[in-house]
Design brief:
homohexamer, alpha+beta, 7 strands, 19% strand, EC 3.1.-.- (chains A, B, C, D, E, F)
């Protein structure tokens, strides 16, 4: 099947795609006519698509997050490709496609990612740090199987959050070896906990954030994770004002580095400094890598990336 | 006794004062001689004072936060008054002075302030809000009797924190009456809780902050108060993710308004918006009032005040 | 009559509404057809509306700020409700509606507001402050009956400016009582004068600002009010460089607090500090209250409000 | 006489200098001794100087802004030259020196500068602009003979303000010729009026600003000049809201360009844009020229200049 | 022929215009029809234009940067004028129009501008500065005949870059005369070199920048010009670390003044300070002059200009 | 020998130390007496020291960067330790100490560091990148043996620059392996070149920067390195506008990320993004590690570190 990323003007396309948006609209002719304004997607990208003259039956048939088979023509509209749909039908079980074939995902199986996180947690030597980290993982373990790390900045896809944590754990392991004055338990704990409350901050399905939750807006994932550390301490019979709790909360609270980026305190332990810059390095490079992957091969430049001050990336060929 | 605020060049002064600082130093003569570099204070202000030729006995006699009787001469040094001490002795019980006579304090008795806070808490109608507020007050009740509200910006004196809360409660009461769409319970709860963890953030004695605590630097009073709300919820058998907990935490977390001022989230409930601006109005006006009070009558302008962008205040006479 | 705020998809609506915008457009069919692109409004909100196939007579009939009776259908277009008009006619006198029934207004009669302002001015004890304030009120008295306080930030409705002044006077009265070191005459004078030149800065009708005037752009309401104080002084035979004139001008000039918000000097008298924060508290809380009022009951969140750093407000139900 | 700018370590100096500061201090020896802490100056620069063992008579003899003859030794103290005074006496009339020989001044006679300004004003063709400009000049004509343009940023010397205006008039004349779409009357009027109220904003003697006046702090020279334009209009029988008054006030109000630099409105007429950048060009280049002039020839770099973001200037030799 | 700047609603227009954009689109009727979405331009401005019912032949006939003769009707669409084309044909040689008649250009012939730049370069007295400047001019001499100075901020038209340099040379000549401490060779060299690499940074045709080049984005015109100075030095047998090379590079590198405006170092020689402010004065005033020129006479205000903080300019009539 | 870092009040100390500063001063007694104001240092830190009653011979004996043997007493002065020297003599060869024993250095031998850098360069596979990198290394090879990486922010010690490069090369190697889409040659080249011109920007001896050079201030190390790349290209017969030259220059020019941090362009290739964040991670963590190393064991907090927004670091004991 042709990947959306490779569509060119004039292509006649037949294939299975995911319906990402499906809105009924009316033309402004007299009398007005109903048409469908779709966004179709596969793992390589997405494209707007129009079904003119939608029938009353169509109206009751097509909804977001459904798989469809379409035949259509790729045209340019305001310098962007869009598809004019000639035929469309729902995908059936016999077609043999699964929804997850069509969405963007981390390149490693979610189960393997979550496993790596849990094994790393189990390897934390200090039993109190370990217990608190495991308590927090349990709060989101199932959602770690599919949550993205963010709405759009970086790792914004299926299991992106778990993938981000795992790559950071690799980098953290290297940095802790290169600089033995860093406490390895805290590097691990900080990496696992820093974004652990993101699934509580955002609502997401199939790796796509639809919006922020009420708690997400009023508390934010940073303070939510701080709350969980207190809950964990109390559940485990630890004094919530013990130095270890302070140190763990500090890692989470300070990991955005500056107040204007959401951290109420700035990094003031060696591991907190390390955590922020490991997080930054991984997020920026992943965003760059993903942008290059999803830019058509014919383009020398990716679109501007918000995460690097809205600059595009140049792809060298040689 | 002459108030320090009224000292003029050439005055011969006799009186009781508080030793705020007492450092032994040496002159750079040969041979060097010991002398005492004091800061003396009363409730109206403070003044540097030198005791030249300090004896070995003196060295073991004078320490900070002690009351002394001095006789000395007021001189100008780099455009600022300073005292040359001619005679000094420790104050004795017979002199009849108490340390609290010499430190700057809120104009209302601490016990009355704490009482007003507790009664306001008791008047919160929603029993869950009330219980959480009372739980947090219990954590700091004794320290509320004397803690300042800040290190230097505003209300930086004995019982300044409790005084700040009480004046805000008066203002909050007025605003809630003027705008009935505001929830009065939340206005009260927000005002009492917003700075409740300051005594955990700073170390203070006699209304003077000596430094920030480890927890104060790594967590900050905003997140510490958020922690206490979680502790209170668990202690009271409430679900820590209940909407009421979210709403209370939001009030505390957002009360500095912007990220660069330390708030991880911005005010997004009516009461959170009200809380921030009530806090601001009270802090700024109190700082202005206190600056005018402690500026010598001969001056038209106070010193620059950090809390209002480092501007001085002009005192109109007419 | 159904309020616009309560319209839901699919509603068949009949009622009287205000035409806020009325533009003739053409479809891009061949041949193109004329249609009317309206915005209809009542005191609860507004909605776009289309009259397809507008006749030549229609073209000469419907204009902005006219009342009409319409029958139409509420539809969704790009996630927002819009009305398809089936029938429309001009409202006649017999229908018994007045334009002011359909525009958003302060909740208190304009005449009562202006009266309160004039009585407060009359109560200023210093005769020179009083005369200057009354001179300035006379410049805009008739426009105070209907001008909004701003184009969109806050109090952007009929008599919003007078309402803003009156609520501030109530709050100023409380603050001046709570802190007797403040000069009550100056609090009153500052509140009345601070925005007094807004009607000269903006052009407005029916409480809606259409644009800024030439003077508004080149001088601004702050310096215009400063001009009026000089004019008043000269007219009253006072020396324009007298300290009282300086103090009054300072209140007006500094009330936006910072240079980047339009104030050429920063507040440096106690009353100037008070004025800025009273203004801020009233403007923010009114904007929050109005946003909640005009948000459909079905929504938990208001739209983002520019006046509070573009944050939305959460409406708690319990 | 040796210029202060050329003093080198170890020089034995005899000459006449101006006493810029003269403070009595005491050593911290036992018993303490009185000594004089002077700042001596001539037109090339200034130097700290100590008179150890000042007698009781000395105390009553030396005051700021007095001319003295001294004999002394140039020493280094904390990397800066300072003079140890061995002999000192007051200058007498027979010595034949005038105070103005010792202070830094504009390179053109003040009377000539003021004359040029008045002739330029007389050459403004529009009689209303001309009358207003002349009205404002009359307010400060005598102070234009000696006032500096600023406290320290640029043109901070005797008649510096008049000199700044005159150089700007030359530059303005060129720009208006190069770009005939600019109104030459307004260019002249704007240049003369833009800083005309500086003598009311600051207190200065002998070209040195001692401090800002009460009006200077509470109103500022920008709004003070705006006031004078209103006064002029009324005195001349012009309507203070006439377009010409608006245009003149706009020139003055906007000449600092940005709110954070003190302008309540931004330049929005061609002449206002020109005025700001002519002012900027002249102030920066004069500050650079003066810094090079007063830097010892042995130095490659001037000290950092606040007016150009605290950068020093490199002096190329070739 | 009627200038586009003077088109009014309802005008029937016949004339020759330049096709600036030409996009084939389809109506959303059933069946969809092809139409042409044009932008037509002349030297006074531009206007969108629609050709409904474009034929298959039309599709292959009209392309950007072609001259056409049209007959059409001026209509309003969303408050902006647009043309409905009734007849259209390609311009032929017999019509006698050249493309350059239709594009915005500097008011002086490009050849004269380039000549003035070359003669000024030839007049630089220091032979090393002269040779380097001439080396760099040779790199872009042909492109100086038509390149604009920027994409949109200022001098964005045919030969705008050469025009900008020439006006700056006039102003630089005046400033260097007014302030003889400035090195005239360096003023000339700095003005000619400061933007000399712009043609390498941007791609432009007919005075219109289409986009930035790869080098423009990755290196920028400032560092590109610095590169050329090194190339010139080596080609001329000069040591690339000679003080003169440093001084020339400094002029170019610092001419944007601040890091956030693209300069890696800030001006630290007298000529570098002069260069930045001469550049600023010329760019801002030209932008203001051009905005007034291209604003319809009926308008009192130009559109907002990005180059002066997005403010519009008021055009005084008197 | 006792390390300076471990000095406590009252210690009687005998040992060898490095004279870092040595200034002759005079007491302000009558007659004034000469004394020596020293700063003594060893590899663990530094301390001010006074030699009262310095003899005429002493004056000619002690100079900066000399080794001395002292006997002295540690006292507190303004809360900081300082030494009163009782005996002092120059160190002789027999004492057996070398200057490099007393200065702070990278923990790896400079020769090994430079070797690693050269071997990495030799391992770059693309011969053009390799030749340019080797050309630039040759420019500074001898200075790489001892230059610090900065004046004070990070790696401010003997061979700190080479050490910084080597640790970055290790980290870069890991990151390039973790993310194979990165070009390893460019990662290596970028790391070696990014600060390669620092020895041209600053003057340094024994790992201590004394000041910035003329070139350093007027051009800066970023543009100096860009110059060297052009020189290298020309020397190697490559076209200075070849894409590879652009890519290498881009790495260097963009490595400070933002304009306000000195980069004229922002990172826009994958390797440029990686380079900036690898640089940041290494610099921050090294600064933290060094601060902990040089903080006395008795302290829980390091001093504030400019490199992490002036925050101190907390040292956890457990």
């Amino acid at each position: 099947m042709t990947l959306i990323k490779t569509f060119a003007e004039g292509d006649e396309v037949v294939g299975f795609y995911l319906v990402k948006k499906a809105e009924m609209k009316q033309t402004n002719t007299t009398p007005p006519k109903d048409y469908f304004d779709f966004v179709l997607a596969d793992s390589s990208g997405e494209i707007p698509a129009k079904l003119w003259d939608a029938s009353a039956v169509d109206k009751e048939t097509y909804f977001p997050m459904m798989l469809v088979k379409v035949r259509g023509l790729v045209q340019m509209y305001r310098d962007k490709p869009q598809m004019r749909i000639n035929r469309i039908r729902k995908s059936t079980e016999e077609d043999g496609y699964a929804l997850t074939d069509f969405i963007r995902s981390a390149p490693i199986q979610p189960a393997d990612l979550v496993n790596m996180i849990k094994q790393t947690a189990a390897g934390i030597q200090d039993s109190e740090y370990r217990s608190i980290v495991e308590f927090c993982i349990r709060k989101v373990e199932d959602r770690l199987m599919h949550y993205p790390a963010a709405k759009g900045m970086h790792h914004a896809y299926f299991a992106g959050l778990a993938y981000h944590i795992c790559r950071m754990l690799e980098l953290g392991e290297f940095v802790a070896k290169q600089r033995p004055f860093l406490n390895r338990d805290l590097i691990k704990a900080g990496i696992i906990l820093h974004d652990i409350a993101k699934p509580e901050e955002m609502n997401a399905e199939y790796g796509i954030v639809t919006d922020y939750s009420m708690k997400g807006k009023l508390i934010g994932h940073i303070s939510l994770a701080a709350n969980w550390i207190i809950e964990a301490a109390i559940a485990l019979g630890l004094d919530p004002s013990h130095e270890k709790i302070v140190i763990l909360q500090h890692l989470v609270l300070s990991h955005h580095n500056l107040g204007e980026w959401g951290s109420p305190v700035q990094p003031q332990t060696p591991e907190a400094v390390a955590l922020h810059y490991i997080d930054t390095l991984d997020a920026k490079l992943q965003a760059v890598e993903d942008a290059i992957d999803s830019t058509p091969d014919s383009e020398d430049w990716t679109p501007p990336l918000r995460i690097i001050e809205n600059k595009p990336i140049y792809r060298m060929r040689t």
